[in-house]
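Sample intake sheet
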Amino acid sequence: MSLARLSLQALLAAVMIQAAAAETIPLPQRKPETGMHTDKPIENQLPQPATTAEPAPLPSVDSVNPDRFGAKPADAAYGAFQRGLYKTAYNLALVRAQNGDPAAQTLVAEILSRGLGVPMNSAEAAKWYALAAEQGVPESQFQYALMLLDGRYVKKDAKGAYALMQAAAEAGNQLAQFNFAQMLVQQDPGDAGLAKAVSYYERAAATGLADAQYAMSQIYANGVGGKPRDDAQARRLLAQAARQNYDTAQIDLAAWMIEGRGGARDLKSAFGWTKQAAEGGNVAAQNRLAKLYMQGIGTDPDLVLAGAWYIVARRAGLIDQEMDDFLQGLSDDQTKQALQKANRLP
């Protein structure tokens, strides 16, 4: 179900408080990627962490594991689901779900929540998630906990959500581990809350969840939550998240590479990560890429491409006085070329 995961905002706010208390580098708030705002020069500002909730990712049909539903590999309904025969999967699973099979209940809920082969029906999906959650299926516990927090299809119940999220986290659901950590931080933004949350962030990060890897990078970068400051470990975690196309980590990693923080300076790789995030639509990265082209950092100087990428970022609402001045200084021919290139960029 595509309900929102809890955002990193609570964690990042707590990290900022603890960092300030320990006189470490404070963690900046991410500026919105749209709307009117300014952006400081690359060398003076680390990229910004996400502060908005993102959809909880649903795996592709081909990657779904039967264990996710508590199903056996030979399960006919699950097999039909894997082959894209969603209506068949629904019909096969529904009979068993009505007879109390928790794996089938979870599969029915999944199909209904995503509208696969049947009309989307989140309220009906909630009923099946609830039944499977009662029988201890971690995926259903996680999804139903999100629904209890959201309150759109079921009555809000923060306590019930907390209990289910914890149960799913302890059972090894990586998204539940991340979200339960977020809940702990929201409940107690102090170092005690962070210290409790760290073990869940670590477990989720170890499974490869990019959100958790990024969260742990911030904890190590600032030395909070019972962890000593460790820039090298923070940079490794940033790299892990960046390789999963986590754009905020890509921008952070690029800035660290330019600065030489947590490892050697690597301007060429920094340029590559910034470009990847920019091409993925991150507006802050687009502005930073413009500066890299303007200053010739990690690449040959290219004033036309610098202008083009800034035009793309500016169209999205980002305003940087330094780059505005740069744009004004281009010749008429350079401005024309920059506009033409900007129209072809993502």
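Comment: Confidence is low (pLDDT under 50) at residues 19-64. The chain has two domains: 1-69+137-265, 283-346.
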